[in-house]
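Recall the central idea of this unit: under ordinary conditions, the amino acid sequence of a chain determines the structure it adopts. In this exercise we apply that idea directly, starting from the sequence alone.
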Amino acid sequence: MRFIKNISILLFVLTTSMVTAQVKFVAKASKQKLGINERLRIDFEMNKDGDNFNPPSFSNFTVVGGPNQSVSNSWINGVRTYKKTYSYFLAPKKRGNFTIKQASITIDGETYKTLPLKIQVTAAVDKPKDPNDANYIASENIHLVAEVSKTNPYLNEAITVVYKLYVSPTIAVDNWNEIDTPRYNDFWSQNINTQGQKVQNGTYNGKDYRFLILRKAVLYPQKTGKLNIEPLSLDIALRVPSNRRDIFGSLLMTRVNKTVSAGNKTINVKPLPEVGKPVDFAGAVGDFKLDVIASKTVLDASESFQIKVGVKGNGNLKLFKLPKISLPSSLEVYEPEHKEQVKTNLSGMRGSISDSYTVVPQYKGKYPIPSISFSYFDLKTETYKRLSSEEIVIDVLSGPTNNANETSNGNIVNNAKQRVVLNNDQFAFIKTKTNFISTKATYFFKTNLFWSLLLLPFLAIPLAIVIRKKKASRDADVYGNRIRKADKLAKKYLSNAKKSLGKKEAFYIALEKALHNYLKARLHIETNDLSKDRINNLLKEKQVDEGTIKDFIAIVENCELARYTPIDIVTMQEDYDKAAKTISLIDKQAR
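Accordingly, the structure predicted from this sequence is:
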């Protein structure tokens, strides 16, 4: 009986030792349910040290802290207890039910995995207003604010958005990074440089704060109705005072990660009034002046002069077309050279745009250039205004004389009368006598055709030699082949855009897609990498000229802009020709 008792005790001790030696590797969550504005702590605990710890992918969360590592050893009744923990602090990205997948670690050559954890993220919850809670202190003392200059602008009227970060003097900010950058859909936008901004003192909700301007943007709405300005969101690492003090009596600071957002802003864009809208209105909104200047008004035939049509002032200068000039047909006119000298600041676009036409008269005489009209919507008076230039007379002193009288609108009228010459046989009868010639049977042998076919193979030999030499010469012409290849490549990529000429939306979508596909094939990049700065850098690396790069980026901007502005088929053809020329130039120049 005593032997059996001793055996039982021995078995119990062995079983206890085996249980004690069992490896444990578990995942624990601080809570199973939380609000989207709360934080979650995940601990991965093990009772024996290991190697190759691999955490799961926290795809639906942002890691705002960790991994933090802690180790504890304790001895109780001679038994050693070991615990090692990896801790992560997570912020949810959206609401929903999510799974924290398995983590793994290698202990004594064996791989161990945790069980998945189910987490539910709900709508934002009211946080307890505990004056000693670090997160509450942070939320009360740091604010990100978006200040919009005007919430009910007209279509194409400039508004500004300024993002300011207000921080209480009682807390300290270590660093921050943007986790959500606003995309200004349905706006023409331009960011204003804010580098070198200094911290300023100000008030927010009646309290003293320090603030820093993080971002400025000028927006021109391209649609009417309610438009949304997306928020700017930051993840900020900061230190807040706690209720504990050091040995010298100073308050100890607690580190906190805080996500702040400027919130969505909605503006209501008013359409431009239909009452009094001119027929030739092209979408100009602001305050402008019109200049039409001829470089010379007295010259000889075959000399050239320039006519400059320019608009200057403050408004949406890059978002409308200048009026065209109308010239008599005896004046040969070339495509205009477009120039922009525009600066954008918080008041919007300011500067000038112009089209310069080169004109060459063909004949002696005086040629009036009719007045040019330009209309725009004045924001100060909220009415349409029309500007008109003076008529310009070009006096061509010497040169050939045009016998046809030319009217001011370019139509040619010939007042000289010509005598009608009658033909004596205009009423001649149909001839009844014929000149038929009888034919005799002939044979193909020894005819001219027979001898020609017989000699043709011998004549083809020198012709084949000449063709072969020309082909070899053409194959050796590397530069010429590149030109021909570039032109062929441009036509290939732009074929769909050419089919859509006249259909504004379809044409510019096809044109933009063609440009993207060309760059993907030529530069070996993906479409989502095609930012304007990246295009500029990649083409520079390929040794493409600055002018060609600017033309390509300008075409891409035209594709984005054209969907919101009235465009005629002539402009579409111009953009198509410019795109074909630019693609061809890039292919010739790229190394």
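Residues 13-20, 405-422 have pLDDT under 50 and may be disordered.
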